[in-house]
Amino acid sequence: TGAVVDTVVGAWWQARRWCPSCERETEQHRHRCGTTTVHYRGVSWLGNDAVNLLCTVAGAAAMGAILRIAIS
Ligand SMILES: [Zn+2]
Predict the structure, then answer these.
(1) Which terminus has fewer CB within 10 Å in the chain: N or C?
(2) Which residues sit with Cβ closer than 5 angstroms to ligand 1, an ion?
(3) If phi over 0 gives left and psi between -120 and 50 gives alpha, with beta otherwise, what is residue 42?
(4) Nearest to 28 by CA among 16, 41, 10, 46
């Protein structure tokens, strides 16, 4: 679950990048023109540590839910 959340969070918040050379949105860190793209949209305060914490919490919550179903 943590890995899935990591992927989803990454897709939502870390995939929006900008090529300043072509002035185009891209998902690649290096655009096909060779220019290194910049992160231009997303949750700027949500760094890697916060994402990892979110994934850990989500994984723990999912495990809790699974255990609750298994016990009852
Ligand atoms: Zn480009």
Answers:
(1) C
(2) 19, 21-22, 31, 33, 35
(3) left
(4) 16
